[in-house]
Amino acid sequence: MTTFRRTFLAALVLMSAAIVGAQTSAQAADSELAQVRVPRLDMLIDARCEGGAAVFRMKNRGDMWPKTATLMVVTHDGETLLAKREMRFAVNQTATVKFLKAAKYPAGVTLYIKPRWEDRGYGSGLRLRCS
User: Fold this and answer.
1) Which of 11, 23, 42, 89 has the most neighbouring CB atoms within 10 Å?
2) Any bridge partners for residue 71, and if so which?
3) Whole-model pTM?
4) What is the pLDDT of residue 58?
5) Among candidates 121, 115, 48, which has minimal Cα distance to 78?
6) CATH number of 43-128: 2.60.40.150, 3.30.565.10, 3.40.50.12780, 2.40.50.100?
7) Are 89 and 41 in contact (CB under 8 A)?
């Protein structure tokens, strides 16, 4: 589901709740409509090889994440999961993921970030070759 579609559907749910609340409330004229904002993933990632290890240094340049995201290091073909971690970033938070055995995979390894609050596939990732 796209971000626009999710935001639109969430806004419809909130509008429905506001209408039902307004009908049952004595203060129907004072009802408010909330805005729904889905935080976007805005990461700065520096990827480099250090002595045969893949090192991914990440910085969150966006808002605080509302939920955790799954960070995965997989083989380049996506067939094998090599490492997995759940993380939640605050504003401007940095983190480093180091995969020591990257040199064993000549085609490279790929870092994927899959946020729990977004419905997106694994189509985007950062590939690094440390052979």
Assistant:
1) 89
2) 85, 113
3) 0.66
4) 94
5) 121
6) 2.60.40.150
7) no
